[in-house]
Write a structure and sequence with these properties.
alpha+beta, Butyryl-CoA Dehydrogenase, subunit A, domain 3, 3 domains, 5-stranded mixed beta sheet, two-stranded antiparallel sheet, 12 helices, globular
Length: 318
């Protein structure tokens, strides 16, 4: 199966990354923690790129463009709910939540939100204050807002839930790719015992393992997207959830390696690695953790409802 993105989509992603980079990357996201009004600049950048006009539900090309956009937003740590905006209906952003502990990243932006759980149940809510922490906001996920007074309000199409999981995974892919690039630059520039860290075999092994993990996530993300664009009705719950689980697991693994190789520097609040790690936590853990998603997926795995790049076609099996 051909999973490569078309050239014009790759070009669009590159243009989006360049436009977002003008805002300042992780350091701009850090500044936004104390001046939340700066998120208006992110919204302006998205508007200039035509992001708000993308119809990810109806157009294959626009869904591919949305995936490239989310990857670029992750790589530059754009402080804005891009996925939720891409899946908005009548100006109301769509966020996935766990109704037992409903929290929304950037939930303080505007009043129009549609909150749904993994089963597609829709809720009306009241947005509360930022989740408490030092400085008035949470340390992990500094733009997270608690949702209150949940009331049932119908349902959203399950296809929207799946698209949300897929596009969130693309955003995580971009973020951890940026983290690996920062770490790679660090180990090549930092010297120890008279030579760069990158000359040490252990460091090389760790970076190689990280690169393989990233390449695997990228291929799975492309494979899942290619299945959706080929036949949206064929891709099910299993595909989207497997991608989200892999995105979360890979992100945890990559960020652990980045912290270890940067040492104490990686844990400083002003470090790009620290900013990336703290800001991607809502995407990693919402609407449910990778472990909880795996438990949900087990019945599907037992039923053999799994397709991968290496699966034998049904016709060949029969």
């Amino acid at each position: 199966m051909e999973t490569a993105l078309p050239e014009h989509i790759t070009d669009f992603g590159a243009v989006a990354a360049e436009r977002f980079a003008i805002l300042g990357g992780p350091q701009a996201a850090l500044l936004t923690e104390s001046d939340r009004g700066l998120r208006r600049r992110a919204a302006t950048a998205l508007r200039e790129l035509g992001a708000f006009d993308l119809d990810v539900r109806a157009s294959t090309d626009e869904l591919l463009a949305a995936a490239a956009l989310c990857r670029a937003a992750g790589a530059t740590l754009l402080p804005y709910p891009v996925v939720e905006e891409l899946l908005a209906v009548d100006g109301a952003k769509l966020a996935l939540i766990d109704p037992r502990a409903p929290r929304v990243d950037h939930g303080d932006l505007g009043e129009s939100w549609r909150l749904a759980d993994l089963d597609g149940t829709l809720y009306t809510v009241t947005m509360g204050s930022a989740v408490a922490g030092s400085g008035g906001h949470a340390k992990l996920g500094p733009f997270t807002v608690a949702a209150q007074n949940l009331q049932l309000a119908g349902a959203v199409p399950l296809s929207d839930v799946r698209l949300h999981l897929i596009l969130t995974s693309w955003r995580l892919l971009g973020a951890v790719e940026r983290a690996v690039q920062i770490t790679s630059d660090h180990v090549q520039a930092r010297t120890q015992f008279g030579k760069p860290l990158s000359d040490f075999q252990t460091v090389r092994f760790r970076m190689a393992d990280t690169s393989v993990a990233l390449r695997g996530l990228e291929e799975l993300a492309k494979f899942t997207l290619s299945r959706w664009t080929a036949a949206p009705s064929a891709i099910g719950w299993t595909d989207a959830v497997m991608l989200k689980i892999q995105a979360a697991d890979t992100s945890f693994t990559v960020m652990r390696t980045c912290h270890q190789l940067l040492g104490a520097l990686g844990f400083c609040d002003e470090s790009d690695i620290s900013v990336i790690d703290r800001h991607i936590q809502p995407a990693l853990r919402s609407p449910e953790s990778a472990v909880a998603l795996t438990v949900r997926l087990l019945p599907n795995l037992a039923a053999g409802d799994v397709q991968t790049l290496f699966s034998t076609p049904a016709a060949a099996r029969s």
